[in-house]
Amino acid sequence: MTIRTGEVAPAIELPGTNGKQYSLAAERGHPVVLAFYPGDDTTVCTVQLNSYNDDLAEFTELGAVVWGISPQGVESHEAFAAKHGFKFPLLADEGKVVGEAYGILGPLGFYRRSVFVVDGEGIVRFAHRSLVGATFKKTPELVDAVKAAQGR
């Protein structure tokens, strides 16, 4: 299954950092940036999430929420988030059900670095799946996608 822009975002109900359960439905009314990444404490993932963390104010000024999602468990996410001081939650998709729903699993079932912007109505307004995963979408492009989702 491949989710495309203009389609309803698949539901997300996952445990994450801060001892919370996260639900995409609960975020209705404002945009959500879903940053799927292959693994905690890996080189590119660390750079990517640190860049989003450093630029988090650019997202929050637009009323957007950022979530990092990977297949590691909550314990791994808690350690990774504490080590780098992430101010946004990391969600644990251990069964890769959400990854499969968003069409981001590679041929061997590994997460591909991908990012989606879901608008306040639950519609995917931006979708990018990396084939190689050595690079990631930078904040300015994602901020522009959030603005576009808001009709700005």
Please give a structural write-up.
The chain has helices spanning 43-54, 56-60, 74-84, 97-101, 139-149; strands at residues 13-16, 20-23, 32-36, 65-70, 90-92, 114-118, 124-129. The chain is of the alpha/beta class and 152 residues long. It has one domain (13-149): 3-Layer(aba) Sandwich (Glutaredoxin), CATH 3.40.30. The strands form two sheets. The chain has a five-stranded mixed β-sheet. It is globular and about 35 Å long.
End-to-end separation: 30 Å
- The helix content, as a percent range, equals 25-40%
Return the CATH class.
Answer: Alpha Beta
CATH architecture: 3-Layer(aba) Sandwich
> Average pLDDT value?
94
The geometry reads as globular
Going across the biggest sheet, name each strand in turn: 5-4-3-6-7
Could you please say which CATH topology applies here? Glutaredoxin
* Helix/strand order, N-terminal first: EEEHHEHEHEEH
Question: Could you tell me the number of beta strands?
Answer: 7
Structural class: alpha/beta
Give the percentage of residues in beta strands: 15-25%
Radius of gyration: 14 Å
Unreliable spans are none
SS field, number of helical segments: 5
Biggest beta sheet summary: 5 strands, mixed
**How many separate domains?**
1
The CATH superfamily bears the name Glutaredoxin
